[in-house]
From TrEMBL:
The keyword Hydrolase applies. Keywords: Hydrolase. Its EC number is 3.5.4.33. This is Nucleoside deaminase. Residues 42-150 form the CMP/dCMP-type deaminase domain. It is an enzyme of class 3 (hydrolase). InterPro entries: CMP_dCMP_dom, Cytidine_deaminase-like, TAT_signal. It comes from Streptomyces hyaluromycini.
């Protein structure tokens, strides 16, 4: 599934990156594997569906994430920031991965997240050295659904770490579905203060 043009342009605009191969934001690597819908597209959609499945466990804050290694899901998580402010879906999934697979193999893992990782989560990916990061809804779009956000695109975090980190990044995967998820969540939160994910 290719990213929507709108989400891609939004991402590029925010990140200040120039035009690239559609669907791919790869600050410091050749825009190769991740974005070619012909090969990776179906797999990306399949694993993003699993992240969406996780997201359904928190209807108000549907930030779901999975870590995939060699075609296997080795980490799952959903936002649990009500329990601990650092428990974003990606962080919970990362912890789950370590528990199941140990603290290694990161370069060969792909993180699938229903939303573009925030600066905290993307920084965690930097420190781990996660090879690929794939998301659905952009940070910009999250803002439009009433969620306060740190306005630093994932690509910018990766770029700032470029001397030692060169991930493949892809936004907008199944964004039609994830955007709808966050819009629904906004309705569910109507009587509540928005708050961070
Ligand atoms: Zn986060």
């Amino acid at each position: 599934m290719r990213p929507t043009r709108r989400s891609l342009l939004g991402l590029l605009g925010t990140a200040g990156l120039g035009p690239s191969v559609p669907g791919v934001v790869a600050p410091h690597s050749t825009p190769a594997a991740v974005g070619s819908a012909a090969d990776g597209g179906a797999a990306h959609a399949r694993f993003m569906s699993l992240a969406i499945e996780e997201a359904h466990r928190n209807a108000r804050y549907p930030f779901g994430a999975v870590f995939v290694h060699s075609g296997r899901v080795l980490g799952r998580g959903v936002n649990a920031s009500a329990e601990n402010p650092s428990y974003h879906g990606e962080m919970v999934a990362m912890t789950d991965y370590v528990r199941r697979a140990g603290n290694h193999g990161w370069a060969a893992t792909t993180l699938y997240s229903t939303a573009e990782p925030c600066a905290m989560c993307m920084s965690a990916c930097v420190w781990a050295g996660v090879g690929q990061v794939v998301w659905g809804t952009s940070i910009e779009e999250l803002g439009r659904t009433g969620l306060v956000q740190i306005a630093i695109p994932a690509a910018e975090v990766a770029r700032a770490a470029s001397p030692f980190y060169s991930p493949e990044l892809l936004g907008g995967v199944l964004a039609g579905t994830t955007d709808a998820l966050f819009r629904r969540a906004q309705l569910l939160r109507t009587d509540r203060t928005g708050g961070a994910p």
